[in-house]
Amino acid sequence: MYRTGEETLPIPPSDELDDLSLFNRAVSASTRSKSSFAFSRLGSKNPNLKIAFLFLTNTDLYFAPLWAKFFNSTPSKFYSIYIHAEPSAAVADPGGVFSGRFITSKHTERSSATLISAARRLMANAILDDPLNFYFALISQSCIPLHSFGYMYKSLFASTAPFGHPVKYKSYIEILANETTLPDRYDARGKNVMLPEVSFEKFRVGSQFFVMTKKHALMVLKERKLWRKFKLPCINVHSCYPEEHYFPTYLSMEDPNGCTHYTLTRVNWTDSVDGHPHTYQPPEVSPELIYTLRSSNFSHDYLFARKFSPDCLKPLMDMADNVIFND
Under the cellular component aspect of Gene Ontology, which terms does the record hold (predicted)? Predict the structure, then answer.
């Protein structure tokens, strides 16, 4: 094994036990439910299903006013909100639609599996809280919406199937197999450590942020085999991004046809620094930027975008009604 002088810390056993209990309760609650919402095949006569917005943050929610405007445009029966906030950070409760949405959170740090745990924790809480939560959208504090809520909801739940026929909804998660950094990322915990559970041929990379179906969320909460490998501390932190590997690898192995293999969150990697994407600054914020960020080569427009600096809030709010939420 090689070392770089830095090494990630293991997840505390107490956190593991707390999470295991939470995940088991979420899976059990869904199993007991007689509703069909735990599955990905839904008919055209279902009642209103919800999008669960899962905010993962280690700072204040800088764009809370923009998100509040986004959510206030539609009845709450169409969405749920859950926030996992880093306990050591001074994250203020922004009030409004976010008040009381904070879940019990654990410590997270970059280049560690704690970010996987936080995402699973958010999904488990959402499943326990409301059986109508069907899509689970993971979002960061530097992320903004690119469309109105109505446009986003119709885009995710649109059906072109004949009346009465079931529609197979998919998870919008990036799954890539040919990235040049994949060998280093695979060996971040040491040579051959991922074997036999995860061979290099099955190892995948993707965006940290996704929109996942309830079927896949439950699969992730029940999963134990791959987790034993991905939770191991990295000995090369510069190639360690577990949250970008665990979900794409697992879903690629278990249900590749149930995933789009692309994300709905637009990120600009043209001038990334230290593994972070381009951060947009106020002078860059314009209607043209929003239109550009929406544009996609896939079957869906991008619905979210990151990364924006906190001081972008004012120019974003200035054009919220006429541009961002004007579809």
Answer: membrane
